[in-house]
Specification:
globular; 7 helices; five-stranded parallel beta sheet; Rossmann fold; 15 strands; OB fold (Dihydrolipoamide Acetyltransferase, E2P); five-stranded antiparallel beta sheet
Length: 248
């Protein structure tokens, strides 16, 4: 995989210095630029291509969330780096957001987030190259595993190894306990029906979680192993919380 081109966006110079120090310790990354506000970031992205933005939320002119609203689907991968925890729930409404890091950021936590970005980019690039030739996943009643086709090989993944499933247009990102991620072609509504009775719960328009893997419910979020927080949508909250608590 080619080196990741990374843009740091933060209104605090010290934050740039800390993140640059972390990046210097990592192989195959290139610092593409530094921006200190949302407007200059938008202008920078008109003329430069990056794979990842390390993005602050609270900035003087427009916030990081407002910047994503402007960029929409043209935005690259995003890791939020912020001192404000209250935006975590809202950040998961954006498909490009891979992780949400709370300042001060530990280097070990930063490296884990970067690893997630790499894995997602590799898998998405490979998947997009083969997507048109992949047949839809075959439905089955009360499945104990899901099947993923990789070239001409079909791999079976036990349902019990899945942490959560995220909708990605007409495709799904399936996140596993070992921090691996698979993709399959199927709308989230179809996989929800296929997994009925297996302990998976729809918590959001974009998320299904393995309720047996939920370690806690924190307000309108669920926590999963690996410091993963996912939002609970308002229309799903009552049923999802009740069912997850019952199964737990």
């Amino acid at each position: 995989m080619k080196p990741l081109r990374i843009l740091i966006v933060d209104d605090e110079p010290l934050a740039h210095k800390v993140l640059e120090g972390y990046l210097e310790k990592m192989p195959e990354v290139v610092l593409a630029g530094n921006c200190y506000d949302g407007i200059s970031t938008h202008n920078f992205l008109q003329n430069h291509t990056v794979d990842l933005i390390l993005l602050d939320i609270q900035m003087p002119d427009i916030t990081g969330l407002e910047l994503l609203d402007i960029l929409q689907q043209s935005a690259p991968k995003i890791i939020f780096t912020t001192a404000h925890t209250e935006y975590a729930l809202q950040s998961f409404n954006y498909d490009q957001v891979v992780d949400y890091l709370h300042k001060p950021i530990r280097v070990s936590r930063f490296m884990k987030a970067m690893d997630r970005v790499r894995k997602q980019l590799v898998l998405e690039q490979d998947f997009e190259q083969r997507a048109e030739t992949m047949p839809p996943a075959a439905a089955q009643s009360s499945p104990t595993y899901l099947s993923f086709k990789d070239n001409k090989v079909i791999h079976k993944v036990p349902i019990s190894d899945i942490l959560y499933i995220q909708s990605w247009g007409n495709y799904l990102k399936v996140f596993l306990e070992n921090e691996d991620m698979k993709m399959m072609r199927m709308p989230i509504k179809s996989i929800e029906q296929e997994l009925e009775g297996t302990g998976f719960e729809r918590i959001h328009k974009s998320y299904l979680v393995n309720s047996r893997k939920v370690t806690s419910i924190e307000g309108n979020q669920v926590r999963l192993p690996g410091d993963i927080l996912l939002p609970i949508g308002k229309s799903y909250a009552l049923t999802a919380k009740r069912n997850i608590t019952k199964r737990g």
